[in-house]
Design brief:
It is globular, with a radius of gyration of 17 Å. It has eight helices and nine strands. The longest helix is centred in the last third of the chain and has 18 residues. Strands 3-2-1-4-5-6-7-8-9 form a nine-stranded mixed β-sheet, sandwiched between helices. The protein has about 270 residues and is of the alpha/beta class. It starts with 5 loop residues before the first strand and ends in a 25-residue tail after the last helix. It has a single domain, classed as UDP-N-acetylmuramoyl-L-alanine:D-glutamate ligase. Strand 8 and strand 9 form a beta hairpin.
Length: about 270
């Protein structure tokens, strides 16, 4: 049996296990991809509340990234919560140097309640310096609007305009996820080569949706690491995430917004 491909996630740790690095690494494992990681932040949170977060110092983050890249043949990379200005700059520099292959940026700039995690100047750095170096970015609709400095809206036409504007900054694909839109159906908006594609899926009646954005971006990375083309990787990721939500719909892990089921169909999503 050949060895698995390797994917890197640069993101924060979630003590509740539902999002961040924990969701990324489970997603990689479900795709038979070996996951390596660099921890950007350590958070204290559960299904009900976010209590605190501590940014990992730049020196330590740099050491983690270098240790992984010096030893592993990383095929694809994703970023999640970067948290501090120095860590945003560090990751941007690594991307600029070509050290982060097939980079998928999940620009985590709002929390679970939709509140901003960064001041405007740091959002500007992400927009101007990191997004342009990504192959794919996967903001939710709130993040897409905040990246452009405009008022968030549920209007699908304005979300499409935002996706095209972000795509013009450099990414090959902008995938604006619709899970936080106040609508009956789930519609993701994808901008690619100047065109808009709407991807509609069922919205399950469940509060267990913790880490769905992390999972989607990690699943894209896992498929890319496994050698799948970009379009197929995005298609695979949508199905994987939707299935993970569906399987966990009745779970009661914790009292609040619970995690999704990444591993239930592990044997069905292998890429080899």
């Amino acid at each position: 049996m050949s060895e698995p491909p390797v994917a890197l996630t640069i993101a924060g740790s979630d003590s509740g296990g539902g999002s961040g690095l924990q969701a990324d690494l489970r997603t990689f494992a479900a795709h038979s991809v070996h996951g390596v990681c660099a921890v950007t932040a350590v958070s204290a949170q559960n299904t009900e509340e976010f209590r605190s977060v501590l940014a990992v110092p730049k020196k330590e983050l740099k050491s983690q990234i270098e240790a992984v890249l010096d030893d592993f043949d990383v095929k694809a990379t994703k970023t999640g919560l970067l948290l501090s200005e120095e860590n945003i700059q560090l990751v941007t520099q690594a991307a600029e140097e070509g050290a982060l292959p097939q980079l998928v940026v999940d620009p985590v700039i709002v929390d679970r309640h939709g509140d901003l995690l960064y001041p405007p100047d740091l959002i500007q750095i992400i927009r101007q310096e990191l997004i342009s170096r990504a192959l794919v970015i996967t903001p939710n609709h709130l993040e897409a609007m905040h990246l452009l400095g405009v008022e968030p809206t549920d209007d699908i036409d304005k979300i499409s305009e935002a996706a095209l504007e972000l795509a013009a900054m450099g990414p090959e694909v902008v995938l604006v996820t619709g899970g936080r839109r106040n609508t009956n159906s789930m519609i993701d908006v994808m901008a690619h080569r100047g065109e808009i594609i709407e991807i509609e899926s069922e919205r399950y009646k469940t509060k267990n949706v913790r880490g769905t954005g992390d999972t989607l971006s990690a699943a894209i990375v896992a498929s890319l690491a496994g050698g799948q083309p970009l379009a197929q990787s995005i298609k695979n990721a949508h199905k994987f995430t939707a299935d993970a939500v569906r399987r966990a719909a009745e779970w009661k892990l914790g009292s609040g917004q619970g995690p999704i089921d990444h591993l239930g169909l592990r044997d069905d999503v292998r890429l080899d």
